[in-house]
């Protein structure tokens, strides 16, 4: 037994590695909405980058440790409270049995990741422990965590390693975002006039996607097309006149115009875009997107060797 959930906040789930090779069966990747932040938290407690961690959405969560353990967190929360004292993100920390760890609402960003040595125990379904809420499998009985849930781990831990994330590698949380994109297969629906525009997220967001309002053109023919394959980072123009950006739990096919595709190197940013945030898109070619991916992977390689965005 590692900890008990005292308050789960708006949404807290267990997430591990993404599911791969199952999209043809209608099973999306799931996994952390911000895999970079989860990997950074796991790094501090000596875990593999995809070890099962707690994804905490919008803070307002509290946990009680049931054993002495090392832990770390990263993502939206710049800090938290442990036994009433402030503790920072991006640092390996020690909790004593009975200590309470509380997260406040983050001023920017959405999701924080809490990691403990060897990860949290979770249901492994389709070769992943990640919670997939729409189909209710994986994680903790396939559902969001609730007050009173008890999470277990693989092992207890010794003293914390003297580890902190290098300052230059800590993702910056902001209320404005620039997402690098390549044109999607239906880019002609919006045209180049879209690039200088600024869009704003609405309150419609979850782990399947987030809605963007702004000067989108009205889709023709009701915005319906034959269904085609989709994946995380797809930007679809809907009949409402708004667009949706797909996140890891999104459907695997869809019939709305697929106008933009967020490049792989920037998909981790999607997990930290909150309602009311402003978003702009930066056009990239396919070759530039590959170069961006190589450059970002190389940037983190010394601290997160082998990390795949």
**Approximate shape:** globular
* Cα separation of the termini: 32 Å
Strand order of the biggest β-sheet:
12-19-16-17-14-13-20
The count of β-strands is: 20
Overall mean pLDDT: 95
| Topology pattern, helix = H, strand = E | EEHEEEEEEEEEEEEEEEEEEH
Strand content: 25-35%
GO molecular function, one term: ATP binding
Pfam family, one: CT_A_B
InterPro entries: CT_A_B, Cyclophilin-like_dom_sf, PxpC
Enzyme class: hydrolase
Give an account of the 3D structure.
This protein is mainly beta and 309 residues long. The mean pLDDT is 95. It starts with a strand and ends in a 9-residue tail after the last helix. It folds into two domains: 2-169, no CATH class; 176-302, Cyclophilin-like (Cyclophilin, Beta Barrel), CATH 2.40.100. The chain is 8% helix and 30% strand. The chain has two helices and 20 strands. A hairpin with a 2-residue loop joins β6 (79-82) and β7 (85-88). It is globular and about 60 Å long. The strands form four sheets. It has a seven-stranded mixed beta barrel. A six-stranded antiparallel β-sheet has the order 7-6-9-4-1-11, with no helix packed on it. A five-stranded antiparallel β-sheet has the order 2-3-10-5-8. GO terms for molecular function: allophanate hydrolase activity; ATP binding. This is Allophanate hydrolase, subunit 2. Its EC number is 3.5.1.54. It holds the Pfam family CT_A_B.
Concise structural overview:
Its EC number is 3.5.1.54. With 309 residues, this protein is mostly beta strands.
